Amino acid sequence: FSPSVLGTREHWDAAYERELQTFEDIGDTGEIWFGEESMARIIRWLEKHKVPLDSSVLDIGTGNGVLLVELAKSGYMNLTGIDYSPSAIQLSEKVREKEGMSHIKLKVEDFLAPSAELSGFDICIDKGTFDAISLDPSDAAGKRQLYVGSLCRALKPEGFFLITSCNWTREELLNEFREGKQLNRALCQRFEILEELPTPKFCFGGRIGNSVTALVFQRK
């Protein structure tokens, strides 16, 4: 991918500072990445597979925290959101307060340099964070490797990883997570794909494709 400001912390700090101000002014929670259907898709999968409501869930790059609120409304109780932008966490805290979801845990944390307690989750969810890392002007390939290593530490063996991406195809994500690199295989054997979730399709030049890819992996 070509480097982009979308891969920099400065961009997201500024973006969430604006969204925080907008929330304080008019109560608008801001953009929902990939739309409301992306959240419903994740919740449908969890419910279909009868994932227990007390499962520990980590939202990687939580932004405004709206996904966690929707999970809480669906009955999930053990929810954690992290973001490296302090403004994002401030916004998600205000959204949490507005919705009366005080049990949602929120923390300023860089997933590429995680603290020791960021481990042992049953479910890890990513909607766009891996995409942003892939656009980082400073060693994006190396940071993708750090991401996979952090995921190995954060997710329990047999835990589920749900990723939604607009930059990566199914095959490319399989290569990044299922195959992995030697360093990451030493951390955890592999991520095995379980399912590709249905996403909106488009037709261009007589060919049909997906604008978004959503996959479910299990850590082995």
From TrEMBL:
- GO cellular component entries: cytoplasm
Which keywords fit this entry according to its UniProt record?
Answer: Cytoplasm, Methyltransferase, Nucleus, S-adenosyl-L-methionine, Transferase
Q: Which GO terms describe its biological process?
A: methylation
How is this protein named in the record? EFMT2 methyltransferase
The cross-references to PANTHER family, in alphabetical order and at most eight, read: EEF1A LYSINE METHYLTRANSFERASE 2, PROTEIN-LYSINE N-METHYLTRANSFERASE METTL10
Q: Which domain of life is it from?
A: Eukaryota
Q: Name one GO molecular function term.
A: protein-lysine N-methyltransferase activity
Q: Which InterPro entries match?
A: Efm4/METTL10 (IPR026635), Methyltranfer_dom (IPR025714), SAM-dependent_MTases_sf (IPR029063)
| Catalysed reactions, semicolon-separated | L-lysyl-[protein] + 3 S-adenosyl-L-methionine = N(6),N(6),N(6)-trimethyl-L-lysyl-[protein] + 3 S-adenosyl-L-homocysteine + 3 H(+)
Report the residue ranges that make up the Methyltransferase domain in this protein. 56-185
